[in-house]
Amino acid sequence: MNIYLPTLIYSEKDCVMKRGNILASTGKKAMIVTGKHSSKANGSLQAVVDAFEKAGKPYVIFDDIEENPSVETVMRARDIGVKEQVDFVVGVGGGSPLDACKAISLMIANPLVGAEVLYENVMLPYLPVVTVPTTAGTGSEVTPYAILTLHQNKTKKSISHKIYPVMALVDYTYLKTQSENVLINTVVDALAHLIESYLNTNANDLNRMYSEQGLRMFSQVKDSLRKPDDSVYKTLSNIAMIAGMAIAHTGTSLPHGLSYSVTYELGVPHGKAVGIYLGGYLKLYQNKEESKRVLDFMGFDDYDGFSAYLKELLGDVQIPEELVKRNAAQIFENKAKLKNYPYDVTKDQLEKLLG
Ligand SMILES: [Fe+2]
Question: Which of 4, 178, 270, 338 is deepest in the core (most CB within 10 A)?
Answer without folding.
Answer: 270
